[in-house]
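Running log. JK asked me to keep both predictions on one page so they can be read side by side. First protein, sequence followed by its tokens:
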Amino acid sequence: MLFKVLITDDEPTIREGLKTLIDWEELGFEVVGTAANGKDALGKFEGLAPDLMIVDIRMPGMSGLELIEQLRKNGHAVHVMILSGYADFEYAKKAITLDTDGYLLKPVDEDELVDYLKKLRVTLASESEAKQKSSMQEQLNREWVVQSLLTPGGQVPEEDALARADLIWDSYAVLLFKPLNGQGQLPALRSRIVSQYEETGKGVVFMFESCVGLLLKDNPKLEPVRKGLQISLLQLSDIEFAAAAGSAVKKLADLQSSFDEAVKLLEQRFFYEEDQLLTGSSVPIKARMTAADGAAMAEPEGEDFIVYCDETAEKLYLAVDIGNKEAYASLVGAAGKHLLEHGSSEQELKAAMAHIVTGVISKLSQRDPELQSRSGELSAGILAIHQTVTYRALERHVIDFVSRLNPGVISAGTDKQVKKLLDLIQRNYAENLKLESLADVFNYNSAYLGKLFKSATGEYFNTYVDKVRVEKAKELLGQGMKVYQVAEMVGYSNVDYFHSKFRKYVGSAPSAYRKR
């Protein structure tokens, strides 16, 4: 830390000479400005806030003596060293009575100046430390008052105690800031909030569990508060945080209600859009979706919930199989929307997404055993689902995670789309393939996809799938496998239905074909 110096003398050669006479920084000082007379120095004082002023005793306009008198009158305790010639000795003695540190005779002796600055640096360092301790103690006292008010059963202090703590305001609002990347960021977050709001008289900072609290003074518009702090924090580091504000209250006795509101909002931050200060007027993501699509659906029963997740996993698997990244986003977004509208809690949402992703991985592993060699990466990806702190972060992570299961990207053009669909059928004929589900995977209307398929193959979709399955069944029956086993392996859960399809396309029963 360098202490600041303002040099004041009406002679330019003296001003410039003093700036270059010694190595100021080596001694712990920096010359932040110069002034040609007392009036000029007084005008620069407020902006520069020097720790030391070196002042010529005789100057035109406002003299050095008059400058010192005015500074003391204004309550400034800045250190002052006066410059004087021998003829000014009586003036110098008078200046000393105005609490100056002493005087230097012109021409200034370099060694004398260096010796003085070394002693002064020790004094300034001691004063700075004392100020910091005093400021810290005052801060702790104010923080204690606020925390006592937020303790259940806490009493509002007497008015004179509030006045001493400078807590008699027109209104009060509690803001809570929670770092999203762990408590290790709390000190940096607290320091920046103190610097930006407490030290500028805009509020009182306090700690609450894993949050930094701010008692905000006189209810300013809240969103600029958050945006300003976010910009400041980004300049400091990559601190990410959630923030919530309770409603403003007029009395400290009602502060608990503002605090409780902020706590509740912060606890529900998962369900709100990111990068906003949560207030009572903030609209959760679910409400936005419901407003756009009409009334929300009733909460599902447990069995229906699992069935929905399994169906989504099936669709998402097929999308991964063909490498359709656009479909990943669409299917994950639709699943999240469905779960939100059904009133799922944060943990239920995460569990459902983990269930869906696990289902996709299970199906992919059956087709591609090498995927099991990535078990560490896959386990970490599923664990990260439960560690997301907002719904949007959950959505992004699942889409990104699924895309890494198969980095391929679907090719453009309807012919290539149909080819992808044909390849998918050949690989997944044993799955429960429905045109409606595949339409979601390919981002087409099911009727339109059916027309494209019929145009390209000459067959209806279901007919084509049945024929692929029957051809695979013929191969398996030829290997001597039992009819019921073959039926299940090619995608028919009902053996009688398999019999009818096989006879339709082959002309004989599966058992008869097996005996050939």
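And the second, directly underneath as requested:
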Amino acid sequence: MGHVEQTVYIEYLGNVDVYLGMGIKIVTGLILGSLVGYDREQKMKNAGIKTNVLICLGATLYTAISMLGHVQGGGIEYDSARIPAQIVSGIGFLGAGAIMKDKGNIIGLTTAATIWVVASIGMTIGYGFPVIATIFTITILSVLKLLGPIYQGFESTKNHKYYHIEVLSHGDIKNLVKEIVFNTTDRIDELHEQIVDKETNKRHIDFYVYMHPKKMRIMGDELRDIVQVDRVHYHQIESKSTTSES
């Protein structure tokens, strides 16, 4: 049996050597998955760079291999959409694991949705459309970065206030505190952590936020619900540079 040259399709390049094509797909998946993951990691979300890269690369490889098997099927009936269809349904279970219910509040919906769309980016790359996947990634990043501030811009900020928040804990909860805060507002400044007692691992965290008083009360309650937290104190200030009386 003679050797049959294997090729894969890449938009704007047409059919290229299988190793070159797979290399382009893998590198594109690595870059685009990293971009989305970096945004999530900056916001202290559970699904960070590594998670999003692995999801994107996995979806890319599964889809690319299914397409390669379809092309090289040798006359055998082969449904190239079968494996990608399983990706769509299977990624839902992974996304469901990112959703948590805490005291009546549902958190992690955006993270779950991000996992789902990152898989779609990988599938688009796997089908041979890295440029379309790049445009889609830029759109996703725009939604994640800009939609929140734009929405807040339409909200009335006349009742928003600056608050200085202090948290005393007996464990390392800095990342958990940041996650709770970022779920409530993007306006956080000057977060500092100081170890008060090394033997008991007692720590003092203080930071500034700008938000509505009602949201501040809700966030304060969420911080107090953390097991390691001993005390939460916050007070309104004129600006983040103002020292307010307790």
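Observation for JK regarding the second prediction: DSSP finds seven helices and eight strands in the chain.
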